[in-house]
Amino acid sequence: MSDMGIIKPLRDRVRDLEVINEAHQKKNGQLRQEIQDKNKIIKDLKQQTIQLGIDKFELIKNGEV
Q1: Is this model's pTM higher than 0.85 or not?
Q2: 33-54: string of b/e by CB count within 10 Å (b at 16+)?
Q3: Contact between residue 65 and residue 59 where contact means Cβ atoms under 8 Å apart
Q4: Chain segment 48-57, per-residue pLDDT in tens
Q5: How far is residue 48 CA from its own chain's centroid?
Q6: Is residue 65 within 8 Å of residue 56, measured between CB atoms?
Q7: pLDDT tens digits, 20-63
Q8: Chain centre distance of CA 49
Q9: Distance between CA 39 and CA 32 in Å, rounded?
């Protein structure tokens, strides 16, 4: 087999891998953003839970419950 017979399929394969890599990088970026968004929601919910506990404690302390 000549060098040209090997090089063309290798170039095609490299091109295919570049396309696959680009798609994976895009998906990875989307997943990272989803994780960041969900982490922010979790943080906000934790803070709300803490605040509700504090509020309930204050109500109990003041005899309102």
Answers
A1: no
A2: eeeeeeeeeeeeeeeeeeeeee
A3: yes
A4: 999 999 999 9
A5: 23
A6: yes
A7: 999 999 999 999 999 999 999 999 999 999 999 999 999 999 99
A8: 24
A9: 10
pLDDT category at 3 given cuts 50, 70, 90 is low
Token duo for residue 11: 């170039």
Amino acid at 32: R
Structure tokens at 63: 């005899």
Q: What is the Cα–Cα distance from 49 to 47, expressed in whole angstroms?
A: 5
Write the single-letter amino acid at 26: K
* DSSP-derived secondary structure for 33-63: HHHHHHHHHHHHHHHHHHHHHHHHHHHHHTT
